[in-house]
Amino acid sequence: MLDVSIIRKDSDLVKKGLKAKNADAGLVDRFLELDEKWRGLNKQFDDLRAEQKKLGKEGKEKAIQLKSELKKIEADLLVLDKMREEILGQMPNLPLPSVIVGKDEKENKTIREVGEKSGLKNPKDYLTLAQELDLIDTERASMVSGSRFGYLKGSAALLEFALVDLAMRTLLKEGFTPVIPPVLINEKSMRAMGYLERGKDEIYYLPSDNLYLVGTSEQSIGPMHMDEVFKEENLPKRYVSFSSCFRREAGSYGKDTKGILRVHQFDKVEMFSLVKSEDSEKEHIFLLSLEEKLMQALELPYRVLDICSGDLGDPAAAKYDIEAWMPGQNSGKGEYRETHSTSNTTDFQSRRLNIKYKNSNGKLEFVHMLNGTAFAMGRMIIAILENYQTEKGTIKVPPVLQNYLEIQEIIKSGI
Fold it and tell me: How far lies 317's CA from each of 23, 211, 242, 309, in Å?
């Protein structure tokens, strides 16, 4: 959530930030109105409590009266506080000053393009290739689980494990701690990460247990350190996690309904950092550099996008995306599709989670939290199949993965 002191001191700045994110700027005035009443009642409560403490034995009748008044004010404060929290929860994180102001994804800016695109004539899309080589089976998955599911088979399954291995080996060298987190988390954790007020329809919920399935492992990594205080010298704290992820894809009706590009269940390796407030923008660039390092290791062509304010999502204050070139998309004309994102959420999530650090002056500050995709498995496998396909219909294995798969080319048998 946002820092209340900023809303009080510079409401115009907050309104500007909410408008840039296509959020309701009127939330600011509604919050300030409630906040003023809340603060006034708090002062009244403190004054009456002080008066109550001064009373002696002879003031018994007055004490009874004050006790009754204090009880009523306390009840009113609880109501007002709940209303304040509800409005605060509807306010997304403010974009950093460096973020492009724009309405939607059409106003994102391409920073750079890297790598050479395939010169293959008449490239096939990944699903055609996968079906010919018996690598992906969505028909049987639809019978077992419904639409937007798939079986990875043979070399496709081995490609996933090879990608996990590559990501882990690369990031361990960079000082990341590996974690396999729970994929079911409680309401407090999911709400603290900022995903329930808006976008709740994307999340799978188990009402009998009051638990949520994570849509990305950052949602369970962030709450690991809830209510903790770090020593400054122990930051940054970096994790690399592997988990299955689950999304309802409620907002994607009619989009990518076939195949495994947009599915309800997928595996992902995710980076997560907790840093000092002054280091978060530098850490953001570092996470992006690691995403690019992994893409370059696979020798896949890609582009980097600077995401505009209207396409950030609630928790993010700044975000970069990487899109891989996929030559089989768009009826063989080729198309860039998103494979990675990295977000700086500043103190938006840590404020709710109450994760702090003690700076060199002994002052407690909220950590800044960041996340970034190492590999989202389905999409990376798609990019490999389409970019490494051959004229004869086989798939070359990226050189960096060949030792793991122990083959150089995926042929008809799938192994």
Answer: 14, 27, 24, 8
